[in-house]
């Protein structure tokens, strides 16, 4: 083994080892090299049963179910936990997965105040960064919320001897990345500041 290794390392090719002299040519003619008999090749006819027995068992591929975003038709909405103090108003705009499938919410949605006849009222929805967007997975029956904040104090140019703005009957809510709204009952009074509402991204 050492000699082979050394030859390979030095790059020399040994053609006639001294310990193995070649036989005379006559001996080569009289003594043809012996050939070992090879066993006859046998072919076993394949059958569906034998092929199935030899083939490795197939492992079923587990395909992860694709979870899509929550569409408007999969959700219901409500205003919860209203808070009032020092002219400031807060509420949780909650969306609940009312479908039978898991879906995801990510980011901010759209808002529009409307009166009882469906007429749009002044609305100025603004995004607040805390908390910011995060991917929320909603199983059937689970909910996520956006925290809303607005003021009940009239701004310059708004009436001060009565409601600062018409009181909305509903809030039209557009879920993130959707275009169709869903209606949420609004029972939180007028929104001063020309309809300005601050809203966070949806969160748990």
UniProtKB/TrEMBL annotation:
Pfam families: DUF4232 (PF14016). Residues 1-68 are annotated as: Disordered. This is DUF4232 domain-containing protein. It comes from the Bacteria. Residues 70-198 form the DUF4232 domain. Residues 43-53 have a biased composition (Low complexity). The lineage of its organism: Bacteria, Bacillati, Actinomycetota, Actinomycetes, Pseudonocardiales. InterPro entries: DUF4232.
């Amino acid at each position: 083994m050492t000699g082979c290794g050394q030859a390979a390392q030095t790059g020399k090719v040994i053609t006639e080892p001294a310990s193995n002299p070649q036989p005379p040519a006559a001996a080569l003619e009289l003594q043809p090299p012996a050939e070992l008999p090879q066993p006859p090749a046998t072919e076993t006819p394949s059958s569906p049963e034998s092929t199935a027995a030899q083939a490795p068992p197939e492992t079923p591929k587990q395909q992860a179910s694709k979870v899509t975003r929550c569409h408007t038709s999969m959700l219901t909405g409500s205003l919860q936990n209203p808070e009032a103090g020092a002219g400031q108003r807060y509420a949780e705009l909650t969306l609940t997965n009312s479908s039978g499938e898991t879906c995801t919410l990510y980011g901010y949605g759209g808002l529009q105040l409307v009166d009882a006849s469906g007429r749009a009222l002044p609305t100025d929805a603004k995004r607040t960064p805390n908390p910011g967007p995060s991917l929320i997975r909603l199983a059937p029956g689970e909910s996520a919320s956006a925290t809303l904040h607005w003021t009940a104090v009239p701004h310059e140019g708004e009436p001060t001897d009565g409601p600062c703005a018409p009181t909305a009957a509903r809030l039209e809510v557009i879920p993130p990345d959707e275009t169709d709204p869903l209606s949420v009952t609004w029972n939180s009074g007028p929104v001063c500041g020309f309809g300005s509402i601050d809203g966070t991204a949806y969160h748990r």
